[in-house]
Amino acid sequence: MLELLDFRTLFFTGALIAGAFAPVMFGTVLRRKTYPGYGSWAWAELAFAVLFLLQAVRGLVNNFGPVVLGNIAACCAMVLLAQGIRDFCGERGRNLWMYVASAAFLCGVLYLYFISENFRIRTLLASSYLAGMTVYAALPLLRRAPKGRQYGYTFAAAVLLFAALIGIVRVLVLARIPNMTTFFFLTPINTVFYLTDLMFIIGISFSFFLLTNERFVADLRDSNLSLAREVEDRQKAEKALRSEMTEKNALEGQLKELVVTDPLTGLLNRRGLLEALQDEIQRASRLNSSLTVLVLDLDHVKNINDTYGHASGDHALRSFAGACRGNLRVVDTIGRSGGDEFAVLLPATDIDAARGVAEKLRLAIESNAVQAGAVSFSLTVSIGIASWAAGDVSGDFVLALADRALYAAKEAGRNCICVADLPVGHQNIVHPQYQ
């Protein structure tokens, strides 16, 4: 069966295979979708095609082509193959010994062909050179196989080492034939050698694509991992930024609260009170609803400071603030406008309802005994009431009316309520004794 596979058929098949792979590889090189060393492999593939073609026509043409040009093609193919593998594996520089050995091989072939014709020695030299070059080409694959990509490297190295082993066997066989004049005689052992040559070109061509594809897949995986890490880092950065923005907003909220909050009573200060009044005016104007303002002043706080000390006076202000908060709605707003004077904003509340709220506050303050350490005392409050009218955009007018009503309440004897919605001189003064 092996005798049927003559050397011409095998070498023509090898030439066709290498010749088919070469243009495909050159097309890939031209599209620049390759890795270092792939261009050298493409030229090596072309050199193998030439080599196999020249060997296929051996005996049909002059021996100069198959012998001289064939050995030159073999030398170029092996040098390009080895250099391509070195480049692909990342081994820097050119190996001088490889070029020296190849040049020596070619010189020996030319000498044994033109000057001292010796077919046996020339064949031994060629087989030894090819075996040595395949071992040399396999070394970077064995040294540089990356973790996770050993399969392609191992396969390519196995193809090369198998070819080297066949080359060594071929040398040993040739050494046992002292009077050999041609190596192309039809025997099973020769057919096996030719068949392994064909297997080599198939295996090494497949190795080129396997190594390239394996590296491409690994690079794609690394790129995806890098992208995933980048996405993760970006998510972490966005999370940190959101956390920072949340913290910043919280700090801004705290700062704003500090800006508009009275530190002693915890109520709005004058600035916060005026901002709240603007908001309530806009709401009342938009909803066409009523808005009433109370201005409150604690009676005789100076006497408390003078008699019991400023600490007791501060305690009285805090106690007053607590009593007021406990008797107002959630939608109502209370603030300290300055000193012992306070203001209450009553949205959606007319004068009659506001008078009831004011009286409720007055009674709560009057009945609330303030305990400041060992000292206990009572408070009273004077209250002025004014209703907001459309057109008073700033709220200054309603505050001025409420202040005028408050002064009227003080002049009326304190601890009472004055409503400023009546003409001046006819304020509605509400005294406790008439409740």
Low-confidence stretches: 422-431
Helix percent reads 55-70%
| Strands, total number | 8
User: H/E series, N to C?
Assistant: HHHHHHHHEHHEEHEEEHEE
**Alpha-carbon distance between the termini?**
131 Å
Which radius of gyration do the C-alpha atoms yield?
52 Å
Query: What is the count of DSSP helices, taking H or I runs of 4+ residues?
Result: 12
Largest sheet: 6 strands, mixed
Structural category = alpha+beta
Describe the protein in words.
The chain is of the alpha+beta class and 435 residues long. It folds into two domains: 229 residues; 172 residues, 2-Layer Sandwich (Alpha-Beta Plaits), CATH 3.30.70. It is 66% helix and 10% strand. It has a six-stranded mixed beta sheet with strand order 2-3-1-6-7-8, sandwiched between helices. The chain has a two-stranded antiparallel sheet with strand order 4-5. A hairpin with a 2-residue loop joins β2 and β3. α2 runs antiparallel to α3 and α4 packs antiparallel against α5. The longest helix has 73 residues. The radius of gyration is 52 Å and the shape is rod-shaped. The N and C termini lie far apart (131 Å). About 2% of the residues have low confidence.
Write the layout of secondary structure elements.
Elements: H1 7-30, H2 38-56, H3 64-89, H4 96-115, H5 119-143, H6 150-175, H7 188-260, H8 270-287, E1 291-298, H9 301-308, H10 310-325, E2 333-338, E3 341-347, H11 351-367, E4 369-372, E5 375-378, E6 381-387, H12 396-411, E7 417-419, E8 428-430
Parallel strand pairs: 6-7
Antiparallel strand pairs: 1-3, 1-6, 2-3, 4-5, 7-8
Helix pairs in contact: 1-2, 1-7, 2-3, 2-7, 3-4, 3-5, 4-5, 5-6, 6-7, 9-10
